Amino acid sequence: MNLDNLYQEVILDHYKNPENKKLSVEKDVQVHHLNPSCGDEVTLNLTLESGRISNISWEGNGCSISMASTSIMSTLLLGKSPDDAKKILDSFMELMQSKGSAKGDELLLEDAVAFAGVSKYPARIKCALLGWMAYKDASLQVEAKSK
Ligand code: ZN
């Protein structure tokens, strides 16, 4: 099996069996993000407790890339400190801006390296980034609230 097939399987698997896809009752903030060029949308709830992401849950509709990427993002960031989450987010953003030249830091990004190939297709980068941008927005709002 070549790497592209393996990656496609990771994406399809998260699309069919998404993680954390059920909005929590309690949350610090809720954000709603759209990707009009593809019709993807994500609502994301974020809760921080004792300096950790204690809850990150979401609901959404859209293409397999946007839904799988949001699912993987939620599994990667749950339980992390906001600083560690930012490192993962920055690393994923860098991968998405690589135009297909980067493979991604597997230690940091784990299953999210499956989206490396997506960075070759400008129209799909927004799909892959939708959930991550929703997290970024939510984390900035939580930070602003706590000041
Ligand atoms: Zn999409």
From TrEMBL:
Cite the NCBIfam families for this sequence.
SUF_scaf_2
Q: Which organism is it from?
A: freshwater metagenome
A GO term for molecular function: iron-sulfur cluster binding
Instruction: From the UniProt annotation, give the residues forming the signal peptide.
Output: none
Q: A Pfam family in this protein?
A: NifU_N
Q: What is this protein called?
A: Unannotated protein
Q: Which residues form the NIF system FeS cluster assembly NifU N-terminal domain?
A: 7-127
Question: Entry's InterPro entries?
Answer: NIF_FeS_clus_asmbl_NifU_N
List this protein's GO terms for biological process. Answer: iron-sulfur cluster assembly
